[in-house]
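Reply to dn_fold:

You asked what the input looked like. This is it:
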Amino acid sequence: MSLLYKRPDGYIEILDSAPHLEYNEGIDMTVADGSEPPKRLEGKFLANIVCWILGLGSLIAWNSMLTIEDYYYELFPDYHPSRVLTLVYQPFALGTMVILAYYESRINTRKRNIAGYAIFTLSTFSLIVLDLATSGKGGVGPFVGICAIVACFGLADAHVQGGMVGDLYFMRPEFIQSFFAGLAASGALTSALRLITKAAFDKAKDGLRKGTMLFLAISTFFEFICILLYAYIFPKLAIVKYYRSKAASEGSKTVSADLAAAGIQTQETQAEDRLSNKQLLFQNIDYALDLFLIYVLTLSIFPGFLYENTGEHKLGEWYALVLIAMYNSWDLVGRYVPLIKCIKLGSRKGLMIAILSRFLLIPAFYFTAKYGDQGWMIFLVSFLGLTNGYLTVCVLTVAPKGYKGPEQNALGNLLVIFLLGGIFAGVSLDWLWLIGKKNAF
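and this is what came back:
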């Protein structure tokens, strides 16, 4: 059994066999043979909470954009904001993610994640500044400015999602589940806040704009909190230090800065033979395609179709917001369902069949929008969110099993590429719903 312990000079030393050493308060020791960490290492519950908040912060900026589309449709009624802004966001997210994944083994994960959350914070605040500078007026200039800020969201997303997934992939599956539950919670939270701020300023003069500004200010605050949590709280948790030390012993260089932030210095460890990115992709191509297909379908419907193709109903201007809120709420529920082990889907073939079956939702949405009432549409949107969250967590928690730390980090980055690729393809295909619609373009 290999053991890691912290020497008095601050360095981590690896012992191939040290049965005589006992765990005590003076030695920071972890087991490096892939077994469970010592029970004395605490912080699992707090780590789950921090992962949840970091997940929330990694998507709250973009979900903020989605949930204030009613305001942007008032300012830019002819520019298809929900579709154009999503289409601007994705190429920057996907392109940056491909570059970062290629160099992932040489990138300082700590700097990468902190930079991502910082860009999110500044970009969200920039939306407020831009609106104040233009006095809430429409036109090409302000819309181009919003598009530029959305492009920054894409850059930040690639930094955070790939960095966090790679970082958490050599830790516990519960951390990944909590992170992606936080992603979904960002949608549910932003929808709830948007409904509250819209209702609070519904009767006020210029109420839609005031509600939007308050909403963006709250989102900026959440992003800033994530910077502090990742930089100062997360790296100092005992269970996080254990997994990062274990990854370092297996040759991972991406965790060095995070270990240093926790007060642990590591000597250069010769990297063990690891699978190349190409080999990892071939071994997990079905998981990669699973994520691609999940998000191709979801983003071909959400949010563009829900804003522009569902017609007029009794809920009026609240209808699209209610649909977005239902999707986000059930997406969050779906990400907790796999915690019930008896209904968690782990079969590779079963996952592919379930994911392909979701494409039956396309004709279902088409005919419901054309002939159904709002109750059926709310049901379909809820089912879309539930299956999106459930299948995403099932795929991402089962994929990294059996690999070493550096391989798990690389695999996490590769899978996020396919996830973002599916989103990009989905938002592109979303434009097909406009074919045959009057005054669509």
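The beta strands are 3-6, 11-15, 30-31, 265-266.
Hope that clears it up.
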